[in-house]
Amino acid sequence: MKLRSLFTGLLLAATALVDAATQYGNNSERAACRQITKWQTLYNRWLGNTLRARKTGCTRDNIIYRQEWGSLLRTQRIEYTEAVECLAKKQPVSPKADVPGARNPYDDFVAQHIKSSPHVHFSGLFYPFHRYFVYLYETALRNECGYKGAQPYWDWTLAWQDPVNGTIFDGSPTSLGGNGKFIPNALPTKVTAFGIEVIVPHASGGGCVQSGPFRERTWTVNLGPATLNSSTKPGPMGLGYNPRCLKRDISTAYAANTRPIKVRYQLEHCGDDLECFGFLTEDLNSTRTGRHYT
Fold this sequence. Notes:
mainly alpha, two-stranded antiparallel sheet, 4 strands
């Protein structure tokens, strides 16, 4: 019953998202940007009023402000990537019997996401889990590595037309690393999860990251793959030791799923129906696949 409900919901969500461009028209990206900015302004105003009334707990004096990656100073971006690299040099806390491949606390977080994924996707737990997960990761960077900032976020709508040259992936020292080395004639990637199979076409890279932080020979991915069909099977659920470089294959086709009209539609279409919003969030044509497969 749950599986049938899942596929029914996804089918309806897919139809809705395909209709989004028709509803808003092909020349409404600027209008969508204006609407998103308006919502952000209203939220900031509400948050400010709420904090002014607070005397204990989260107040104006102790709140941590998260910023979009591109709005950070260059020095702040480097401080963040250095903190991530620092975390990868610490000892893991996961029991060896549970996560035999973990080599550092960064792997601990990867392992927890792998283990939790079957329970927190396509359910009401999706948003609360990931909010708490990010908070714990942010706390680890601050407590374990002396990071003074907050976890940055990525505004997908800023560089959806050219993500390779956006501040996140431009390969500079102040980015999160560049694209992967281009692999000619590379095969598509088959992703399977929750009974769903997605074929992700080869795009502009496919090999090891070549520039910026987390490039080849400076960063090692130790766990996974967990849901990819692969000849490598490093332990149950991808929790065994499987060291390799970080690969990227940046796709403008999938980046288009994060364009402003998609974001606006996803926020407007369901009103206060959270079940509808949940299906839209995880639909294969949604912003989620855009940010995952970009």
